[in-house]
User: Fold this.
Amino acid sequence: MTESTSAVEQAVQARIQVARWRAENARRRRAELAEARRRGLAARHAQKLRNLADGRQP
Assistant:
């Protein structure tokens, strides 16, 4: 194999890097949304328990 890479090889490598970047961003976004969902569920549950303790039905 030669030292220099062809334009095709460079284009392929660029597309691979973009695909990796998009996949990583999607994974990070899913993790952030999952964490927000967990916080929201915990907050709703805590509010429900407070309502029950106050004698109010949600």
Observations:
- Residues 7-53 form the longest helix (47 residues).
- The two ends are 70 Å apart (CA to CA).
- Residues 1-58 form one domain.
- The CA atoms of residues 11 and 19 lie 12 Å apart.
